[in-house]
Fold:
Amino acid sequence: MLKGLTRALGTLLALLTLYSLLGFLVLPGIALRIANQQLTQYASVPAHLQRVEFNPFTLELTLWGLEVGEPGKAQVGFERLYANLQLDSLWRRALHLASVTLDAPRTELLFSKNGQLNLTRLFTLPPSESPAEQPASEPFPLRVDHLAINEGYLHFRDLRPSEPIEFLYDSMNLQLKNLSTLADDNADMSLVAKSPAGGRIDWQGSLSLSPIASKGTLKVTDAKMKLWWPYVRDALPLVLQDGVLSLDTQYTLNLAKDTELRLDQTSVQVAPFAINAPDGRPLARLASLKISEASIDLAQQKIRVGKVRSEKLETWAALERDGQLDWQVLLAGEPGKPRTPSAKAKAAPASATPVSKQPAAPAKPWQVLLKDVQTRGALIHLEDRRQKEPVALEVGPLNLSMTGFDSLNGSPFALKLDTGIGKQGKLQATGQVNLAPVSAKLDVGTQDLDLRIAQAYISPYILLELRSGMLSSALNVNLSSVEPLALTVSGNAQVDQLHTLDTIKNRDLIKWERINAEGIRYVHGDAVSIDTIHLQQPYARFIINEDRTTNLDDLLIAQPKGAQAASEPPAARRTEKPLGIRIGRIDIADGSANFADLTLTPNFATAAQQLNGVVGTIDNRQSLPAKVDIKGKVDRYAPVIIHGALNPFNPMDSLDIAASFRRVELTTLTPYSGKFAGYRIRKGRLNLDLHYVITQGQLKAENTVVVEQLQLGDRVDSPDAVDLPIRLAVALLKDTHGKISIELPVSGDLNNPQFSVMPIVWQTLRNLALRAVQAPFKIIGGLVAGGHSQDLSTVAFAPGSSQLSPEARAALDKLASGLKARPQLRLEIEGTSAQSSDGPLLAQQRLDREYQVTWYKILQRRGDKVPANASQLVVSDDDKPAMLEGIYRLRLKQQPPAQWEQLSRDERSRQLRDAVLKYWSESATLQRQLGQDRASSIKDYLVDKGGLEDDRVYFIDTTLGQAQKDGKVITPLHLDAG
Structure:
């Protein structure tokens, strides 16, 4: 019995020893040799497994040191692989591993230029003898209680893109609990992957292999976008300069039937971000972009975003010469590099036709919901390259808010925009916008938008410089359709400090202090209406040139004939409905205008000031004429009244205008009298009443002309003068009060091209003068004025000045008193200047004004705020030498002498200044203007201070006299009776 037991124990120990030898030593050695033989046979690169360990009692298997690849450059390998098999695998019908640990795995994932993956070339496997098609089978039953990957190493490189992509994760740690291929089993998973470049991936959740499903959270921190950007670069020609991406999301994935993927509580942050064009031009810069409270449902094709926050976006965009946006051109493909067709497109034969002729069902569109979007501090650089000189505009800082956006829903979303435009302009917009269909209702406000940006668009058509102009508005914009365009705009707008310059003569053309349009309503394609237009201090200049063209004709640039007409079909031009225009009222306050006629010798010029009045309703769809009521003055003292009604769109159909001019100084009409009468006008005033009525092209005019105290001056040789004794005719036409009263009725058919008003008026005047010469019984004598005991016939002025001295004011006070005591006396003022004493001072004054005007223009071009008038500026002495060069060339119309180039700066400036002063000191125009100013100073004092009626003071044409010994200049005064 004992021997049998001993024998049994011995046998058992022998078996255990044999089992141990086989498990611990023999089997690991055999397995290692077989493994290395297989690696040698099938691996296409050097491959080696260092050691195999197996514990036959605990069923633990450990593999050490696998390396597949060149020594030191292993493409696949690990330091240690540990697995613990459980015995219950025998009766559970599934391979059960209690633990699997993989230490320091290494993987090189490399794509070559032709797209081959290195891992597919590591082994050369024998061809499979199984049938080509096998029925789907259940996955191998496997359960792993705990799977761990410690300090994994992954190196990825892809040479397929135009720029190689390469990144590395050198610390990857994976934990899986209860991993199973059995149906509906879930494993708990966690992954942490770190990159030496600073990026990190954190992945936690559950994982099911049958079916494949997962749920959990994924977090990507500080991922460098440059690592994978070449994939984007090959699809879109955008060069990434900087970009860091962070992502945090909860996800749900299920591949049981169709792919189901949901992302919830997703947040994405990009900070910073910068992209350039291929040529190096900057396209966009972004300090920070944050997307939070977002979700994505792949099955429902829906994206929800709770918040979007953008900080300091800066972008550049340009409109190319062909009218396309540079972003469009860029995204369509780089110039000269057509898009490469896809491999699928290359493989398809050119003659291939679709198998089925049935149209494909439209794909379900994605729905994007944006709850709250905010952009702060954005800056947009815009450029229009279609013009000869590109137009640049900066928009920003721009703040944008958008709430309730739905890409599929027909309901509108709220929009709020607040941005700067240019240097000092502002734009605000708030309202509702809809994308399906496109519509919008916005309240748009602008403030101080610089209109000079329009200069490039004006220059091709007119020689006009827009010196200044600020637009402000408060508008309601209602867009109800895009195709066809249905747009309505209403509200108010105003333009302040508009100033335009004739670039040929460098003179003011049109300007105003403010124009305010109230009650604007524009309906696209139908009509535009304005309730009221307020014009504050408008100004216009109109000149008749020597060749009888006007200054406006000179400014227009000839355009190619038919350029605009050729762009439109003839039928469209014939049937297009004309735009309705209606202006309810135009108010004019303190307007002025300059008029000149250069066909006369000397040239004629006059000015109208203090124009105030109203123009009634103007409507091109109504036949009712607009009422006109305007009052003003010519040359400050002569009142003008214009009233009546006219149809500005068809004046030949209906016009009834009456104009009244009172106390117009006839000396300003000397150029006309010289040309048509052969005499200058020394003295006189004109009262003129005009009444023109046009009804359907039929003219009926009544003109009443009253000339007071007319005195002719020197004779003028003119081929256009009438061959009549004009002096005698004037003397005979005067009544007992020294007046000439003439009635000039005119009537005719304006539809007749042979009919002209002025020849009839002129012939009537000629006949009247002829009848006056033939009626000597109407000769009228004048009165001769007496004098004061004190000599008040002259007024002395200091050289270069039109200011009255205290002595002169005292003398004029006595003169005013005497004239008021003699109401029939009239005073004549003969403005006088003397070149010897006035010239140098006038030149200095003229130079000082030129400095102010030049500095004013410089400030305007720089966009600085300037006063209303250049005379309010103070020019520093340091800035004057730089201006002298331009003043010399502009005014003397010549270049400085070459020898001045050798002079010092101060000496050269002195020479330039002396030359300019000498030129102006000899100017007859300045001398004449000073004489006129002196006459005006005397009249202004007598009227404003002396209380004398202005209609009793006349101007005599100025003269050039001699200065007194003390340098003073004497202005003679003359008395005459009414």
Summary: The chain has 17 helices and 38 strands. The radius of gyration is 49 Å.
